Amino acid sequence: MNKDQVEGRMEEVKGKVKEVVGKVVGNEKLKGEGAGDQAAGKVQSTYGDIKEKTKDAIKSGADKL
Fold first, then answer.
1. Helices within 1-65 (DSSP H only)
2. Is the CA virtual torsion 48, 50, 51, 53 positive or negative?
3. How far apart, in Å, are the Cα atoms of 40 and each of 5, 17, 25, 60, 63?
4. What is the distance, to the nearest Å, from the Cα of residue 19 to the centroid of all Cα atoms in its chain?
5. Which of 51, 58, 54 is nearest to 7 (CA)?
6. What is the pLDDT along the chain (65 residues), one digit of tens a residue?
7. CB 41 within 8 A of CB 23
8. d(CA 62, CA 65)
9. How far apart are CA 53 and CA 27, in angstroms?
10. How many CA atoms lie within 13 A of 64 on its CB side?
11. pTM of this prediction?
12. Distances from the Cα of 9 to the Cαs of 12, 20, 21, 25, 45, in angstroms?
Protein backbone atom coordinates (compact mmCIF):
# COMPACT_ATOMS: atom_id res chain seq x y z
CA MET A 1 0.00 0.00 0.00
CA ASN A 2 1.38 3.41 -0.91
CA LYS A 3 0.95 6.93 0.45
CA ASP A 4 -1.68 7.94 -2.11
CA GLN A 5 -3.85 4.93 -1.32
CA VAL A 6 -3.77 5.66 2.42
CA GLU A 7 -4.26 9.41 2.16
CA GLY A 8 -7.01 9.01 -0.43
CA ARG A 9 -8.98 6.59 1.70
CA MET A 10 -8.56 8.83 4.75
CA GLU A 11 -9.90 11.76 2.73
CA GLU A 12 -12.90 9.67 1.66
CA VAL A 13 -13.70 8.85 5.30
CA LYS A 14 -13.27 12.49 6.33
CA GLY A 15 -15.62 13.52 3.54
CA LYS A 16 -18.24 10.95 4.56
CA VAL A 17 -18.15 12.21 8.16
CA LYS A 18 -18.54 15.82 6.98
CA GLU A 19 -21.43 14.86 4.71
CA VAL A 20 -23.27 12.99 7.48
CA VAL A 21 -22.74 15.81 9.97
CA GLY A 22 -23.96 18.28 7.36
CA LYS A 23 -27.12 16.23 6.84
CA VAL A 24 -27.75 15.90 10.59
CA VAL A 25 -27.34 19.60 11.37
CA GLY A 26 -28.95 20.76 8.13
CA ASN A 27 -25.82 22.50 6.83
CA GLU A 28 -25.82 22.20 3.03
CA LYS A 29 -22.35 23.78 2.72
CA LEU A 30 -20.79 21.18 5.01
CA LYS A 31 -22.67 18.42 3.23
CA GLY A 32 -21.31 19.65 -0.11
CA GLU A 33 -17.77 19.92 1.23
CA GLY A 34 -18.05 16.34 2.41
CA ALA A 35 -19.13 15.14 -1.01
CA GLY A 36 -16.24 17.04 -2.58
CA ASP A 37 -13.74 15.57 -0.13
CA GLN A 38 -15.03 12.08 -0.88
CA ALA A 39 -14.60 12.61 -4.62
CA ALA A 40 -11.07 13.98 -4.18
CA GLY A 41 -10.19 11.07 -1.92
CA LYS A 42 -11.53 8.58 -4.42
CA VAL A 43 -9.39 10.09 -7.19
CA GLN A 44 -6.27 10.00 -5.02
CA SER A 45 -6.82 6.44 -3.83
CA THR A 46 -7.50 5.27 -7.39
CA TYR A 47 -4.28 6.95 -8.51
CA GLY A 48 -2.48 5.11 -5.72
CA ASP A 49 -4.07 1.82 -6.78
CA ILE A 50 -2.87 2.35 -10.36
CA LYS A 51 0.65 3.18 -9.17
CA GLU A 52 0.73 0.04 -7.05
CA LYS A 53 -0.53 -2.19 -9.87
CA THR A 54 1.97 -0.69 -12.30
CA LYS A 55 4.83 -1.25 -9.85
CA ASP A 56 3.72 -4.86 -9.31
CA ALA A 57 3.44 -5.48 -13.07
CA ILE A 58 6.92 -4.07 -13.69
CA LYS A 59 8.38 -6.16 -10.89
CA SER A 60 6.61 -9.27 -12.17
CA GLY A 61 7.92 -8.66 -15.68
CA ALA A 62 11.46 -8.08 -14.40
CA ASP A 63 11.31 -11.31 -12.43
CA LYS A 64 10.60 -13.24 -15.63
CA LEU A 65 13.77 -12.02 -17.33
1. 3-25, 28-63
2. positive
3. 12, 14, 23, 30, 35
4. 15
5. 51
6. 999 999 999 999 999 999 999 999 999 999 999 999 999 999 999 999 999 999 999 998 887 76
7. no
8. 5
9. 39
10. 6
11. 0.86
12. 5, 17, 19, 24, 6
